[in-house]
Specification:
It is a single chain. With 182 residues, the chain is α+β, with helices and mostly antiparallel strands. It has a domain of 117 residues: GMP Synthetase, Chain A, domain 3, CATH 3.30.300.20. It has 5 helices and 5 strands. Strands 1-2-3 form a 3-stranded antiparallel beta sheet, with no helix packed on it. A hairpin with a 2-residue loop joins β1 and β2.
Length: 182
């Protein structure tokens, strides 16, 4: 089987590039300030039923809903699907950034994600067995990346990106979550 680098022609179309100089500057900034922490913010507003609009920065809101079998209108991903999408996007950002950092041009980057979740607690209104594992019990990600480097190098980039993904690491460890009525 040939590697993607061997099968790409000289007219291969690559993904829109990342600013390599800007990426380098961000990396240097991180090295210079290793203890730096930023606070990210979002505001979610319920429009009714399970239709939620989440506002981040000055961007258009992100719609979140539930599918009909979970009593939603099926207008958008549900919160758990959005989490999978966020993980996929974070991993993809890392792969593309690390490929750029190594001088690798990617022509394809696709991630397929799936996760196993027990929903029988029905947000605290169903089966409330405290021994139940809530949330995802396993998430599987398959990354298909092609570019102008040997597949072994691309695979190493994928592996490295997984280790340094903020969202993947958030899912891997216990995070203090404080929820309070205002």
């Amino acid at each position: 089987m040939s590697t993607p680098a061997e099968t790409l022609s000289t007219t291969a179309e690559y993904l829109r590039p990342i600013d390599a100089d800007g990426l380098q500057a961000l990396g240097e900034k991180g090295k210079a300030n290793p203890e730096s922490v930023v606070t990210l913010k979002a505001k979610t507003v319920c429009e009714g039923q399970f239709r939620m609009q989440t506002y981040v920065r000055n961007l258009d809101p992100m719609l979140i809903d539930e599918p009909p079998h979970l009593l939603g209108e099926d207008n958008a991903p549900n919160p758990s699907e959005a989490l999978l999408a966020t993980l996929g996007a974070c991993l993809a950002v890392g792969v593309h950034a690390n490929a750029t950092h190594q001088g690798v041009k990617l022509s394809k980057l696709e991630l397929a994600l799936e996760g196993d979740i027990n929903v029988t607690a029905v947000w605290g209104t169903g089966d409330l067995d405290e021994a139940k594992d809530l949330g995802f019990t396993e998430v599987r990600v398959k990354i298909h990346a092609e570019g102008d480097a040997p597949q072994e190098q691309i695979d190493a980039i994928v592996s490295h990106s997984n280790v340094w993904s903020p969202v993947a690491n958030t899912l891997r460890r216990n995070v203090n979550v404080v929820v309070a009525a205002e």
